[in-house]
Amino acid sequence: MFNEIERFVNWMRRRHPDAHTWQDYRCDLQQFARIVGDRPPADITLTDIDHFVLVQAEERMNPATINRRLAAITSFYTFLADEDPDLVCPVLPHRHTVRQRRRLPRPVPEDDLNRFLAVIEDVRDRAIFLLMLRCGLRIGEVAGLKVRDLYLAEKPPRLLVTGKGSKERTVYLSPQAVQAVQAYLAARPSAPSDYLFLSYQNDGLSTTAIHKRLMHYREQAGVQLTAHQLRHSFANDLVTADVPVTSIQKLLGHAWIATTQTYVAANDRQVQADFYQAVAAMEEWQ
Question: Cβ neighbours of residue 275 under 8 Å, at least 6 residues apart?
Fold first, then answer.
């Protein structure tokens, strides 16, 4: 199976050369092969998928991770079916998809944010995490940024971000984010790579490398946060500022407005106002 996985991953890489999706697919499918064994894909049955899901659950994998890996397996079999139309995907969504708890987004507390940012002295890393916090970028979107995506001289300054599904969107930069990016550009080494954020080998950074830097700084600051929580904080700030939900959707690059609505549900100003108005009336009666 590993040979088929490599062919699929290479096809994904050719199809979306600027995205890091192929790396995630490779990791997910290698985990799949590790559990079910290096067998021909046609030999894998739905009971093997049952076993795959069970093993991950016993390893306390997050339901979202399990479902993402099931989606990767489905895409893998769809790719192989182009060569063998008789090949049947063993993943049955109604049987194998794991139910996820619906959790509201959790922004980072302001004190934790300040402590986190206070320990970041490296100009590259500061620019990376401020783009997540002040512009709502995903970790993969930051890793994929190119120098040509920056339009800092425009008013207002903006950048083009390639999000999920290789869809581009415009993201506007706050003054703090502009200052951080400009400080990094002034110190950025001259390199042939077009990636905005360079590793110490003068090539593009991986999402894993960025995650390791985040873990380093949060340990220094003594706080618990994730890269995606920085994006949650950005969205929460927009909701608090009464930005229309459709504008928040475009800034975050959500395909469905229902996804954006979860931020409104977590911090609904109208619900707050209605509650305190009712409480004031009730306490006045007493």
Answer: none
The answer on 85 and 33 residing in a single domain is yes
Q: How far apart are CA 216 and CA 119, in angstroms?
A: 10
| Contact in structure between 210 and 143 (CB atoms under 8 Å) | yes
Q: Is residue 247 in some structural domain?
A: no
10-residue block means of pLDDT along the chain (286 residues)?
90 78 87 91 92 89 87 93 91 84 75 94 95 92 92 91 84 92 94 90 88 94 91 86 86 81 71 73 68
Does residue 269 carry a catalytic annotation? no
pTM: 0.68
Q: Same domain for 54 and 144?
A: no
Domain hosting 186: range is 110-223
**Annotated active-site residue in 138, 213, 218, 232:** 138
Active-site pick, 164, 167, 216, 269: 164
> Does the annotation mark 263 as catalytic?
yes
Q: Is 254 a catalytic residue?
A: yes
Catalytic annotation present for 51: no
